[in-house]
Amino acid sequence: xxxxxxxxxxDDLSTAVALPGSTAIQSSPPTDRPVRVYADGIYxxxxxxxxxxxxxxxxxxxxxxxxxxxxxxETTHKYKGRTVMTAEERYESLRHCKWVDEVIPxxxxxxxxxxxxxxxxxxxxxxxxxxxxxxxxxxxxxxxxKKVGRFKETMRTExxxxxxxxxxxxxxxxxxxxxxxxxxxxxxxxxVSFVKEKRLRVNMRLKKLQERVxxxxxxxxxxxxxxxxxxNEWVENADRWVAGxxxxxxxxCHKMGTAIRDxxxxxxxxxxxxxKLENGQDDDTDDQFYEEYFDHDMGSDEDEDEKYxxxxxxxxxxxEEEEKEKEKTGKTDVKxxx
Length: 338
Description:
Number of strands: 7
Strand content: 5-15%
Pfam family, one: CTP_transf_like
Radius of gyration: 60 Å
Order of helices and strands: EEEHEHHEHEHEHHHHHHH
Strand order of the largest sheet: 5-4-3-6-7
Number of helices: 12
Distance between the termini: 183 Å
Organism: Raphanus sativus
GO molecular function, one term: choline-phosphate cytidylyltransferase activity
Region (Disordered): 1-32, 274-338
Structural class: alpha/beta
EC number: 2.7.7.15
Shape: rod-shaped
Helix content: 55-70%
């Protein structure tokens, strides 16, 4: 199936010119029509590496008509090995590549002049790696087109190939088997024995359990980190709270001291004798109020002792006076009786 319909039907092919001093021939591309470039391959598990090589072939000339040949299953299995996709699947994959103008099914393994003439091919595009032909002598499949000067080299894309993709599947074979079993395929469809199926299921359950344990461990680790962050935040907040409390407490103590001092001053003012105020005596300072208050209400212990002893002496003196009075009275009574 062709994606482009403007390919001319002219039979003019590119002319080949022998290079001086060499057996190789360099062909010149036609200028009056699109250059017909042919690329061939197996194209199993069609991937972007295939697409890039076809893109290079398509862009090898300003005006290119790209034909892509794909070998059938019989030829491929004989010379290369078993494929994952069938021939029809590989053909259809190529038809959906935007760089391909026409797909040639049942392409030959070795290109000859008859094949080039029948398909009016000007150049053959492929990477420069040698591919063994059908002779078994290790000759390059593209040796003929290289000699006639109709070979256009393309570059391979590193890191991607059909063999690499197959190796990935083989490496993770058990996982792919379990995935397909879970999707409804039977073990007969997958070619798996009963014992192997049970073993795979047990292993997959153990793996899922390990993944859950690991997930829980990660969650616990996240919780621990969150707790540490919250603890640090709590400590910082606690420091701020304590500092704020101490500041408020200090301010409260200062206000309390001020209130106590004002209360004492009011009491001292009330205890001042009114006659001093009536006589026009000036009000004393705060220090004088404190001194008068403490001198009046809270005398020293020595003053109290002196006051006590003075009262005692006064009592004794009064007692002596009474005795003397009694003696005088007694003497007077005696004289009167006589």
